[in-house]
Specification:
- This is CO/xanthine dehydrogenase FAD-binding subunit.
- GO terms for molecular function: FAD binding; oxidoreductase activity.
- The chain folds into three domains: 39 residues, no CATH class; 116 residues, Uridine Diphospho-n-acetylenolpyruvylglucosamine Reductase, domain 3 (2-Layer Sandwich), CATH 3.30.465.10; 93 residues, Enolase-like, domain 1, CATH 3.30.390.
- Helices cover 24% and strands 27% of the residues.
- The chain has eight helices and 14 strands.
- The mean pLDDT is 97.
- The protein is an alpha+beta fold.
- It has a five-stranded antiparallel sheet with strand order 4-5-10-6-7.
- The chain binds flavin-adenine dinucleotide.
- Flavin-adenine dinucleotide binds next to strand 2, helix 4 and strand 10.
- The site of flavin-adenine dinucleotide has 31 residues, from strand 2, helix 4 and strand 10.
Length: 268
Amino acid sequence: MDLHGVREIVRPRSVEALPAWQPGDVMLGGGTYLFSEPQPAARRLIDLAALGLSPARREPAGLRIAATCRLAELASLEVASPAMSLFAPAVHCLWGSFKVHNVATVGGNLCLALPAGPMSALMVALDGLLCLRGPGGALRDLPARDFIVDFLTTRLHPGEMLESILVPNAALARQGVLRQASLTRYGRSAALLIGTIGDGGFSLTITAASKRPLRLDFGTLPSAEQVRHAAADALSPDILHDDIHGAPAWKRDRAIALAGEIAEALRT
Ligand SMILES: Cc1cc2nc3c(=O)[nH]c(=O)nc-3n(C[C@H](O)[C@H](O)[C@H](O)COP(=O)(O)OP(=O)(O)OC[C@H]3O[C@@H](n4cnc5c(N)ncnc54)[C@H](O)[C@@H]3O)c2cc1C
């Protein structure tokens, strides 16, 4: 839809060319959310695609993924690491057509902070380290698991931009299993869980059923029953997300069942 309050679109060619922050500024990723509903406070869009960041590159510490990496680009990355098997399935947990996957960005999905954000699930599961750029250019790192604090709420400061996410080598080396449940065949995720196992033990990330991602860590792989119990304890009534994509109690049941399935899948 048209965003009637927008007076200007800025297309910075580099991070150094980002404009000074002013009220009404809105970071534009792929725009698949921004252009889907009125944005009455928006006056100026800062089009991050113009930055021309490389979608992903290997670094000594791991895989650096630009916030502007499109979901389709992420799904087709060719990196020889066990955890890469999670990338395409995570993208396809967002039930959009190729038109959405070709424009929606990893950063936009994280910053929107919907409970069913598959990039949030993936980056929390893989110990993603977010690189955030403040309006004055100052950089700070924040673990993905600490980024989303509530429904549609992140730890981004005003004017701060998510620039990239580093997935460390140790996380890339982990085996992973993803499970997702929706109320309807092509419905938004009601429960989206990722389990990983490797050095450091077993980790379970629970999203969609909860308002924010939950991460449970175990020294070794517990039994399916123990994992189900841990998930049930974590999914307390206050953390359950209530929307049209499923009743909170049903989402909780699905998440607990999927947690057990993940433990069983990783045992075999
Ligand atoms: C058919 C369809 C299905 C969808 N299904 C899902 C789903 O299952 N799960 C889900 O989570 N979402 C879903 N969405 C919502 C949305 O499209 C996705 O979350 C998408 O990933 C958002 O990415 P984007 O790049 O288009 O973000 P945009 O619309 O560009 O931006 C989203 C928000 O993030 C901010 N932002 C974007 N990039 C940055 C950045 N680098 N730094 C700081 N702030 C930034 C924007 O200002 C805005 O507030 C769906 C949308 C459609 C149309």
